[in-house]
Each structure stands twice: as structure tokens, then as C-alpha cells.
Design brief:
heterodimer; A: mainly alpha; Cytochrome Bc1 Complex, Chain D, domain 2; B: Immunoglobulin-like; 4Fe-4S (chain B); membrane (chain B)
């Protein structure tokens, strides 16, 4: 690369002496302050490196750490919410639902707590999931849909071993333990279908009715209306936890699947349980 | 400049000098300080008037009061960051209507393009804040340190008491103006009288002091120290405004066909330019307009005034430097080629000129764009609703099967009220027969219809459940419409949504 500095005849300016394929660059000097500004940014970067945790294992002289700043912000937010949380802890769900301010807070907080703790089984928005995770947004409840019943269920859970007050009940294993023959189970299933008007074999349903009266009415009721005290689902409606086909019903009579839910008392702040109660109640099925 | 052929004759006529040694060619150079001389004339008077108007607008607007009723700011122009509102006299803009600001910026851009293609760099030379505040700072400088020669003498002279007094006083006044500028900026975002008292008594927030200092500091730095370097090195506009200029644009031009060859006033056979450098001395960016069109020229036209006053004293016709189109310049040059200096050449050159073509495809397109954007904005503003209902359908669950076999959907309904009125409204569902709506937490009117609240200048949210009884034939998706009704029955707002059922 030639380095011959020439005077450009058109502009009267000197060239830098650089040439690329016949193109010559005019020397238009950059202002000095521009150069100094560049140096200033380098100094600024060095200061930054020293003051902030910019390289591994260096915490910076300022002591500012993003993670600790977040922790501080969370603590500040908790401190702001503390008075309201104290009120929610003391109040009953019914009191919370009646107070617009507490209710608005509980619905917002309950939505978050539900997403963190409950949506894994019950689905976002309480839509439920196949295989025995009840929909909380419908109007059908196994253990009760009043504020008190929901609170009780959340606090103590269902059929768990960790809480003495957990809701509990056992359905016999009619088939697996040889209490009923396969034919009898088929007849009972046909009768169960007839409770919601879906039986196809009236003779079998008739035979099943006698067995149902003998074995099932104690919990599920004469006409399959269910019993919330023992968590016996209503059999005469359109909501089915384990499926509504004859084969699915026979499978449950043969070897029942009884859902388990953990107790949340002790894991969650009582205020959070109250917020969850009000939130679940608001999903659409609250009684 | 790409579209304009610049007359470079003056420089090209100089004999090429011998190349300098490499050592004498630094890649960085100190700034050549510019000492603009005072000037009188038509352009200068217009420039003073524009300056006074711009500064008056900037400093006074925050102080204009506008009564909006109790509980609302009474400042006519206010960007209320905290409450997310933009107040402009009778208009109140919500964050979701920020497109009005976008529209105003688009309009500003097209107006800038149109003005540039018609009249050259009017924006740069007269109304740009950098030009306005630099002009004001130069006025202060001239007032305290004297005109061009006095200032040059002061800078070259000894650093004595006189020097430090004048320099110190200049910077003090500059800082006062800068503080007023930063203070006025803050006032567009918080109540002007309140924040003024807070700043003066030391009770303003850290943010207020930060932005106050930021804008005061940069006003001082850019108008006091950087000046023309902002235009030459920092601003992108001089670099691409060439795309808006063409041979029909009025630009500040030296009529070289009339001025060349330069010479003493009494010399024989020379043009009208007496090479007095008056045009160079008044230039705020320190250039020689006789070198032709150049990036550094901000089109302020002060050289026009300077040259006109010299021509007036010499008894020659004014307009040796003038706002002229490059097309006319070329026409004059063509008409006077080969003619000797004198009155005949002047008359022939001036006779070759035509009125500038203001109406041409480029300006028509800019005008069209301005008209379209203005109409769209005006339409959007006139049709802008002050009461909205938005409907968010639950996605989880998509729908719920009820114990009786019916289907239910959940919705979240938001009532956005941009006005002060807060009387309740009736929420009404338009849907096929059999659809039932339940609004959680809502009262009912005497007819049993759900009454929803609207909050003055705010948003209210409701959860709404819509259900269909069992046995009703239901497509997978049914259109439904939610309406807000005034007590009189008038539809205040509406929003359509869908009702989703199981797949058939």
C-alpha cells in the first residue's frame, strides 16, 4: 500500500496516503475532543469493572449484586403487603369474600398461589385433568364447594397420611377382592349408567339395581346422588372424574382409584390458604 | 451532496500546493474556534423573531393553566408519567393511544421533508434547538465580551482580571440560561409552580434534579462549547437531507457568475465580490459560502445580510449571496458565460432566472403524505371512544361441562372509562336464545339486569360466566356480543367475542 500523501486538486485537501484500487482517502481530521471522548469511555469502562461485579469472583467495590437487589425488592414488596396479609390471616373466607378490598387482593394473590401450588394437578384456571384431577371451575363438588368446605380441603387435604384431619373414605375393591363377580359388576355399571339416563341394557340395569341397593347406596345414595361427607361422587350427573363409559365405570367398581391430595396447612401461610379458598370459590362453582 | 452539483470553482482555481510531509498530517485536529460577527438585515431580523417565538413557547407553555375539574392537574400541557396520562389542553391521552404521538412525529418528519425540498435547511438555520440556543448564547457572549474582533483580542490577550471577569460573567449567564432550560424541561412532566418551588427550596425528588441537571448540563455544553460541531459531527440530518434537496430547492447560494473574478472595489475588470470576507466572518459555522454547497452550511442566511450590507454601501445591487435555486444559478451561469464583468452581465444573468418550481412531484408527494397522515389522525381523534369494553375469554378452561350437562364459558370484562362520569351501566349479552349470563360482584337494576360500575378516569374489571342449558344444539364456536347500555338504553360501547363448546 503506497503511503504517498498528495494534495487533492478538487477539494484542496491532503490524502491520508492510503489507496485501494485507485481510490484515495481524503484526510479529514477527526476533532480531538472526539478522541478524548473515546478515551473517556475506556476510563468509564475501567471504573465500571472496579465498582460492579463485572468479572467472575469479583464482587465490585460498591457491593451491588443484582440477586441481592431483587431479594431486597421482594422484601420491600412483602413489607408493603404485610398489613393486608395480617388481615387475611385473621379473617374467615366469608369475611374476605364480603370485603371488596380484601376480596380483590385475595383474588390476585390466590391466582398466583394457585398457579404455583395447585395448577400442577388441577390445571390452569382449575380446568382439571384427566385421570382423577377434579375440575374446580364446574359446579360439581366431591367434598363440598362452600367457602368453609374448600378451606377445609386445602388445609388438610384428602386421604393423605400426613394430616390426621385429612378427608378420608375408602371404596371397597368389589372385583379385586372377590366381593362381586365380573357379571355382577357389569350389571351394576349398567345400572349406574341408567342413573344419568344412558343405560342400553334395561334387563342388566334391573339386575344391577338390586346389587346397587345392597352394596352402594350407603355412600352413593338411593338414586346415586352422592354424599359429600364421605366424598362419594354423585353418579346421576354429567361430570365424571374417571370417565363415563361402561368399561371405565366397571374398572372403578373392580378396583377403585381414590384420589389423594396433600395437606397445605403448615406448608402455606394461613393467609395464602384463605386467598386460595376465595380464588377457587370464584372460578365458577362456588356455593 | 449527491443530488446537487456543487460549484467548487473557487477551491479548484487555487493552484495545488506541494504535498505536506506525513508528520504534518495528524489524524486528529483541534477545533478552529469560530468568532461570528454581528450582522444586521432582513434575515437576521426574521431569525431574531423566530428565536423569540421558539424560546417563548418553550419557557411559557408549562405555565399555561387549564381547569379540568377537581382532582386533576390544571396544567395545559403535561406528561403525567406517574398516572400514565398525557394532557394537552382539552385532550387527554392514555398510554394505549400513544399512536397519536407517533402520528404527530410522522407529520413532523414529512413537514420537515417538504420544507427542506422547498426552502432548503430552514429547520437547521432557524428553528432547530441547537441553532436557537447557540444563537442565544452567542448573543450573551457578544454582549459581555464584545464583537468578533474584541473577542479574538480577548482570547489572544493576557489572562488578566478583565479576561477572567468577562469570561466568568459569560459562563455565569450561560449557566443561568441552561438552568432555566433544564428547569423548563422538567416542568413538562410535573406541575410547573410546584416543581419550581421544590427545586428552589431543595425539596424536589432525585429524578427531578437528575433531569434538571442533565438538560441544563447539555444545554451549557452544546450551546456554549460544542456549537457548530453538533451540526458537523453529531447530527445525522445534514448527512441525509441531501435526499430532500434538488435543483429547485431554495438554498443559500453565492452567485459566482456575478461575483467572479473577485477583486478590489475600485479595480478594473473584476466581478462584484470584493473579497471582504464579511460573509465568512458572520457565519456561525465558520465556512465560506463562496466554496459552494457544503454539509456544514446550516442555511441560516446571515451571509446574505452581511453581503447585502456591503453591496449597499458600494451602491451595487444586493443579492450577490441569496436564497436561490441551483437551477437558476446554472441558468444564470449559462446566460453569462464568456461575458465580461459589468452591468450587462448582471442583467443577462438575472434575466435568465425563473420563479422556483414549488409544485413538483417530490413536493406533491410530501404534501400528499402530510394530508393523508393528518386526515387519518383527525379521523382517529374524532372517532376515539371515551368508553370501551374489552372482553378476555378464559383460555383455561376453554369451557366447563356442568353437572346437568350444560356448557359454561368464563370471561373477564374490563370497562375502560376515559371520562369523569361514574354512573353505573347495564351489561347486556347479545347471543342466541337460551344463553344465560351471570356477572360476579355486580348489582342488578329493577329489571334484573346486571349493573356494572365505571370508575371515573379508570378501569373496572368483572368476571362474567355465560352458560348454555343442556340439550341445546351448539356449534363449536358461537359469536356473542357484550354491550354496555346507558340507563336510557343507548349503547355506550360494545365488544364481540365467542362462546366455545365441545367439538361436534
Amino acid at each position: 500500500m503506497p503511503t504517498k500523501i498528495e494534495k487533492d486538486t478538487v477539494s484542496g485537501q491532503d490524502t491520508t496516503g492510503h489507496e485501494w484500487d485507485g481510490l484515495k482517502e481524503l484526510n479529514t481530521p477527526l476533532p480531538k475532543w472526539w478522541l478524548y471522548t473515546f478515551y473517556a469511555t475506556i476510563v468509564w469502562a475501567l471504573v465500571w469493572v472496579v465498582v460492579y461485579p463485572s468479572v467472575p469472583f469479583w464482587r465490585g467495590t460498591s457491593g451491588w449484586i443484582a440477586r441481592e437487589a431483587i431479594v431486597g425488592e421482594v422484601e420491600a414488596a412483602n413489607a408493603r403487603n404485610a398489613p393486608m396479609m395480617a388481615r387475611l390471616r385473621e379473617a374467615t373466607p366469608a369475611q374476605i369474600a364480603a370485603d371488596p378490598e380484601m376480596r380483590a387482593f385475595a383474588l390476585a394473590g390466590g391466582r398466583v398461589a394457585f398457579a404455583n401450588n395447585c395448577a400442577g394437578c388441577h390445571g390452569a384456571g382449575g380446568q382439571g385433568a384427566q385421570g382423577g384431577y377434579p375440575t374446580l371451575a364446574d359446579d360439581d363438588w366431591i367434598w363440598g364447594g362452600s367457602l368453609e368446605a374448600i378451606q377445609q380441603t386445602i388445609r388438610h387435604g384428602i386421604r393423605n397420611t400426613e394430616d390426621d384431619e385429612a378427608r378420608t373414605s375408602i371404596m371397597p375393591r368389589f372385583g379385586a377382592d372377590g366381593m362381586l363377580t365380573a357379571a355382577q359388576i357389569g350389571d351394576v355399571a349398567e345400572h349406574v349408567l341408567s342413573l344419568s339416563g344412558r343405560a342400553t341394557d334395561q334387563a342388566a340395569a334391573g339386575r344391577g339395581q338390586a346389587i346397587f341397593a345392597e352394596q352402594c347406596v350407603a355412600c352413593h345414595g338411593d338414586r346415586g346422588e352422592g354424599n359429600r361427607d364421605v366424598g362419594a361422587p354423585r353418579l346421576s350427573d354429567q361430570v365424571w372424574l374417571y370417565g363415563n363409559t361402561k368399561a371405565q365405570i366397571m374398572a372403578i367398581i373392580n378396583n377403585p382409584r381414590m384420589g389423594v391430595m396433600p395437606a397445605w396447612q403448615g406448608r402455606l401461610d394461613p393467609a395464602v390458604i384463605n386467598m386460595l379458598t376465595v380464588y377457587v370459590h370464584s372460578l365458577g362453582g362456588g356455593e | 451532496m449527491s443530488t446537487v452539483e456543487a460549484p467548487h470553482r473557487a477551491k479548484a482555481d487555487r493552484p495545488p500546493e506541494a504535498p505536506a510531509a506525513a508528520a504534518a498530517q495528524p489524524l486528529y485536529a483541534s477545533r478552529q474556534k469560530v468568532y461570528p460577527k454581528r450582522v444586521f438585515g432582513v434575515v437576521r431580523s426574521v431569525k431574531w423573531a423566530v428565536l423569540a417565538l421558539c424560546l417563548a413557547l418553550y419557557y411559557v407553555v408549562p405555565w399555561i393553566r387549564w381547569n379540568r375539574g377537581p382532582g386533576l392537574p390544571d396544567q395545559a400541557v403535561l406528561v403525567d408519567i406517574e398516572n400514565a396520562r398525557l394532557f394537552f389542553f382539552w385532550i387527554e391521552i392514555w398510554p394505549q393511544e400513544i399512536y397519536f404521538l407517533t402520528g404527530a412525529l410522522i407529520l413532523g418528519a414529512f413537514a420537515l421533508f417538504a420544507v427542506s425540498s422547498l426552502f432548503g435547511r430552514l429547520w437547521c438555520g432557524f428553528t432547530c434547538p441547537q441553532t436557537v440556543w447557540t444563537d442565544l448564547f452567542m448573543f450573551v457572549e457578544r454582549w459581555i465580551q464584545g464583537d468578533r474582533n474584541a473577542r479574538m483580542k480577548l482570547d489572544q490577550g493576557p489572562r488578566n482580571a478583565n479576561y477572567w471577569t468577562r469570561k466568568g460573567l459569560t459562563h455565569f449567564v450561560w449557566l443561568l440560561i441552561a438552568a432555566a432550560t433544564g428547569g423548563a424541561w422538567v416542568m413538562y412532566f410535573v406541575d410547573a409552580p410546584t416543581v419550581t418551588m421544590q427545586i428552589l427550596t431543595g425539596h424536589a425528588s432525585v429524578q427531578v434534579y437528575f433531569f434538571f441537571a442533565l438538560f441544563a448540563g447539555f444545554t451549557y455544553l452544546l450551546a456554549g462549547w460544542a456549537r457548530e460541531q453538533v451540526c458537523t459531527y453529531m447530527c445525522p440530518w445534514p448527512r441525509f437531507q441531501a435526499a430532500m434537496l434538488d435543483e429547485n430547492s431554495l438554498v443559500v447560494t453565492y452567485r459566482d457568475w456575478r461575483g467572479e473574478p473577485r477583486g478590489k472595489a475600485k479595480a478594473e475588470g473584476v466581478g462584484d465580490c470584493v473579497d471582504c470576507f464579511a460573509c465568512v466572518h458572520v457565519c456561525p459555522t465558520g465556512i465560506d459560502i463562496r466554496d459552494g454547497q457544503q454539509l456544514e452550511c446550516i442555511g441560516c442566511g446571515l451571509c446574505v445580510d452581511a453581503c447585502d450590507s456591503v453591496m449597499g454601501k458600494l451602491g451595487r445591487p444586493k443579492g450577490l449571496i441569496a436564497f436561490e435555486t441551483l437551477k437558476n444559478l446554472a441558468a444564470s451561469e449559462a446566460a453569462t458565460v464568456g461575458m465580461p464583468p459589468g452591468e450587462a452581465r448582471y442583467k443577462a444573468g438575472m434575466a435568465a432566472r425563473h420563479l422556483p418550481r414549488f409544485i413538483r412531484p417530490r413536493t406533491m408527494m410530501y404534501a400528499g403524505a402530510i394530508a393523508v397522515v393528518s386526515l387519518v389522525m383527525l379521523g382517529a381523534f374524532l372517532l376515539r371512544s371515551t368508553l370501551d369494553v374489552t372482553v378476555l375469554r378464559d383460555r383455561a378452561p376453554l369451557f366447563v361441562r356442568l353437572s346437568d350437562g350444560g356448557i359454561r364459558n368464563g370471561y373477564t370484562i374490563k370497562i375502560v372509562n376515559k371520562r369523569r362520569e361514574d354512573s353505573p351501566l347495564v351489561l347486556d349479552l347479545q347471543a342466541p336464545q337460551g344463553f344465560r349470563m351471570v356477572v360476579q360482584d355486580a348489582d342488578t337494576d329493577p329489571d334484573g339486569r346486571p349493573m356494572v360500575a365505571r370508575r371515573a378516569d379508570g378501569i373496572v374489571q368483572y368476571r362474567v360466566l355465560v352458560s348454555v342449558p343442556p340439550g341445546q344444539r351448539l356449534p363449536e364456536s358461537t359469536p356473542v356480543t357484550f354491550r354496555l347500555l346507558e340507563p336510557s338504553g343507548r349503547v355506550a360501547a360494545r365488544q364481540s367475542s365467542t362462546f366455545v363448546g365441545p367439538r361436534q
